[in-house]
Amino acid sequence: MKAYVFPGQGAQFVGMGKDLYENSEIAKELFEKANEILGFRITDLMFDGTDEDLRQTNVTQPAIFLHSVILAKTLENFKPEMVAGHSLGEFSALVANNVLSFEDGLKLVAKRANAMQVACEIEPSTMAAVLGAEDEKVEEICASINDVVVPANYNTTGQIVISGSISGIDKAAEKLTEAGAKRVIKLNVGGAFHSPLMEPAREKLAAAIENTHFSKPICPVYQNVSATAVSDIEEIKNNLIAQLTAPVRWTQIMKNMIADGATSYTEVGPGKVLQGLLKKVDRKFPTFSA
Question: Which of 25, 155, 232, 249 is packed most tightly, with the most Cβ within 10 A?
């Protein structure tokens, strides 16, 4: 079975999607439609902007979404049998899987990005990558700290991202280092994604999702919150809403896809981050870039 996966925030780069725009009329039409929907020329920032432009959450998320979705729509013989997306990438996966229209998917991503950016401004917060520590130890240490700090992304074997207040991250980093973690690296992100601090954004996104049409998927989507294959529309919507304050269970998603019969793993979008994560789970499993 062919698994298609879609990257999340952090995969962006200046020039992303430019080749699609210049070489495909379908892609050019979709990019221009996106400029109209968003109310600004995101293509200018994607193709010729700066790294700083692309690091802004309200630009990063729709940019990665557009690159991933438009690439999927221009692929020959694109017939997914299972899909998943890392955080933001779940929206790309749902559009590629015909659950959401291109227009509705982009509007939800823009709403999500703007709501998350506003939530980040309420309280200073951040994230940190923890390398070389057992999942259970990271969970135990986060739970022992009074400030807000939680596991946010279970990315791959031996790599978890934690998320929370500045003080919570600092305290967790100290305890994790003492407990034997190889490294704890603060990330250059706008705030504490996938943590309780995203509750204001979750509420705004929930209202938007409830007012958006969802269709039955072509194939199961392995969702971040449950890490399992989901086809029920209401369950998809509920998981999508919960995702903003819940952890991304990517390690388990990769393992479940393989256990459920995946024979290949194609990353659709900018970069090769997800292929690298899978290699740490199963080095022999075949991976491709779209």
Answer: 155
pLDDT tens-digit readout, 110-126: 999 999 999 999 888 99
Q: Which of 248, 265, 279 is nearest to 81 (CA)?
A: 265
pTM of the model: 0.96
Q: What is the mean pLDDT of residues 54-63?
A: 93
> DSSP of 258-290, one letter per residue?
HHTT--EEEE-SSSSHHHHHHHHH-TTS-EEE-
Q: What is the CATH number of domain 2-121+196-289?
A: 3.40.366.10
Least confident of 56-60, 88-92, 141-145: 56-60
Residue 38 pLDDT class (50, 70, 90 cuts): very high
Intra-chain end-to-end CA distance of the chain, in Å: 16
List the 125-131 sheet strands across, edge first: 149-156, 159-165, 125-131, 183-186
Q: Which two tokens stand for residue 185?
A: 């690296």
Catalytic option among 67, 68, 87, 125:
87
Per the listing, tokens 């407990």 go with 179
Fold of the domain spanning 123-186: Alpha-Beta Plaits (3.30.70)
Is residue 213 among the annotated active site residues? no
Give span(s): CATH 3.40.366.10, the chain: 2-121+196-289
**pLDDT single digits (tens) 167-219:** 999 999 999 999 999 999 999 888 999 999 999 999 999 999 999 999 999 99
67, 163, 165, 194: the active-site residue: 194
Q: In the chain, which residues fall in CATH 3.30.70.250?
A: 123-186
161: left (phi over 0), alpha (psi -120 to 50) or beta: beta
C-beta of residue 278 within 8 angstroms of C-beta of residue 287: yes
